[in-house]
Write a structure and sequence with these properties.
Strand order of the largest sheet: 4-10-9-8-7-5-6
Distance between the termini: 20 Å
Bound molecules: D-serine
Number of domains: 2
CATH architecture of the largest domain: 3-Layer(aba) Sandwich
Strand content: 5-15%
Largest sheet: 7 strands, mixed
CATH class of the largest domain: Alpha Beta
Number of strands: 16
Radius of gyration: 23 Å
Length: 478
């Protein structure tokens, strides 16, 4: 396929948009420039292919298609059926899953679908059954009280947010923390690693209905075979949220005990992180949960997004190609090179390194909070996000960590040599940034000082580093 086709497609699209609201066309163009010029190290971001992006920009967006393939609540869904069935088939084949549900709009949607599927499967609730046969509007007030009573206080055990778990795994401000009586497992304070004996102990004491594995800021592999054994020992359903590392599972970097799909009863994911697809979610499950999962609409979801399901089909087809396995391996090679580069320059990393796509720097060693470090790096053209570290004294807003990941830069083609240069740039910024003070002289967790000339110099070096690896090389908007 010619590069010219990509330029023509995106240029024409912008021309059409510009005729209606030029400021939107300008913002889309500016976003491409910004993404091209910055060193994107946000562990949960990537660059979807032009084919994936284009599959979303069309009239599939106009179609309602509540229901499932071949069983819709609207007429005229034959083409939506085609793309939804294709996306599900690619997902099943790619991950070796018995069943795939590709309608969730996001990771939280996917997790909510999974939670409700497990509740419906495991909890005897006549009121829920009524709700699920699409009589939600017919439920009386007494039915709703019964539903709350029957489902309430079910227990969930997931990884704590500050140890690297996700807010949808039972964090109190999230709906998951309100739906469930929740308890969390952390990591060993010395090694930073999951202590499976402690997880087993917590499971024995708490007896959860659902044991959740998976993370968004844990830089190591997780042994899903052991977690499944723990779940089985207490009669829990084992759910894994593989949103962050789905690309490493797809690319067969995580296999055996580290592949969640053969071990978990139900697996959720987003499609836009290391998997490199469109922004969206997905649920994979074992056959006995399939019917419940397919009731995601109307329990949790409204109409699916057919344009995004089309893009999921494209991206999943891409991930089934042999070169995706090479890409997935390079993500990990790059993360390890980045970790080595930082360690050799004196940085402190949570768990002392990585064996996945992300690295968590404890920036307290530089005398900074995560917020100060994040902003100083951004001033220098390096896009990261602040993140709690285990037992973080600065909480979830200021934090003591910076999370960095390699899926995006690996997509651009950067390799291990460039990761060492990236480590040098990060280290330079962090060593040259000084924590600021509040007006009353007390230490500030947000203010900082970084010489503007140095920040500009690093930003230029970052741009130079990226120059050899253009982003969307086939797209010329000029
Ligand atoms: N926001 C995602 C992340 O950055 O990890 C998770 O939801």
């Amino acid at each position: 396929m010619s590069r010219n086709a990509e330029s023509t497609a995106f240029r024409s699209a912008l021309e059409v948009i510009r005729a209606v609201e030029p400021r939107v066309a300008d913002a889309i163009g500016a976003e491409l420039t910004d993404q091209r010029e910055s060193l994107k190290l946000i562990a949960s971001e990537n660059y979807a292919s032009p084919a994936t992006l284009l599959a979303m920009g069309n009239w599939f967006s106009d179609k309602y298609a509540e229901g499932t393939v071949g069983r819709r609540f609207y007429a005229g869904c034959q083409n939506v059926d085609t793309v939804e069935a294709l996306a599900a088939e690619h997902a099943r084949e790619l991950f070796g899953a018995a069943h795939a549900y590709v309608q969730p709009h996001s990771g939280i949607d996917a997790n909510l679908v999974a939670f409700w599927a497990v509740l419906a499967d495991r909890v005897e609730s006549p009121a829920l059954k009524k709700a699920q046969v699409r009589q939600v509007n017919d439920l009386s007030e007494a039915d709703w009280f019964a539903l709350r009573r029957e489902l309430g206080n079910q227990r969930m055990l997931g990884m704590s947010l500050d140890a690297g778990g996700h807010l949808t795994h039972g964090f109190r401000p999230n709906i998951s923390g309100k739906m469930f009586d929740q308890r969390s497992y952390g990591t060993d304070p010395t090694t930073g690693l999951i202590d499976y004996d402690r997880v087993a102990e917590a499971a024995r004491e708490f007896k959860p209905l659902i044991l959740v594995g998976g993370y968004s800021a844990y830089p190591r592999k997780v042994n899903f075979r052991i977690l499944r054994e723990i779940a089985d020992s207490v009669g829990a359903t084992f759910m894994v949220d593989m949103a962050h590392f789905a690309g490493l599972v797809a690319g067969k970097v995580f296999t055996g005990d580290f592949d969640p799909v053969p071990h978990a009863h139900i697996v959720t994911t987003t499609t836009h992180k290391s998997l490199r697809g469109p922004r969206g979610g997905m649920v994979l499950c074992q056959p006995e949960l399939a019917d419940q999962v397919d009731r995601g609409c109307p329990m949790v979801l409204g109409g699916p997004l057919p344009h995004v399901m089309a893009a999921k089909a494209v991206a999943l087809a891409e991930a089934r190609r042999p070169d995706f396995a090479d890409y997935a391996q390079r993500i990990v090679d790059n993360a390890q090179a980045l970790a080595e580069g930082l360690l050799s320059r004196g940085a402190t990393l949570v768990t002392g390194g990585t064996d996945n796509h992300l690295v968590l720097i404890d920036v307290s060693g530089y005398g900074l909070t995560g917020r100060q470090a994040e902003q100083a790096l951004l001033d220098s053209g390096i896009v990261t996000n602040r993140n709690s570290v285990p037992q973080d004294p600065n909480g979830a807003w200021y934090t003591s960590g910076i999370r960095i990941g390699t899926p995006a830069l690996t997509t651009r083609g950067l390799g291990t040599a460039e990761m060492d240069q990236t480590a040098e740039l990060i280290h330079t910024v962090l060593t040259q940034t000084t924590a600021g003070a509040n007006a009353d002289g007390t230490p500030s967790k947000a203010k900082y000082t970084l010489d503007a000339g140095l920040a500009d110099k690093v930003a230029r070096q970052a741009t130079d580093l990226l120059a050899t690896y253009p982003l969307y090389p086939g797209v010329d908007l000029s």
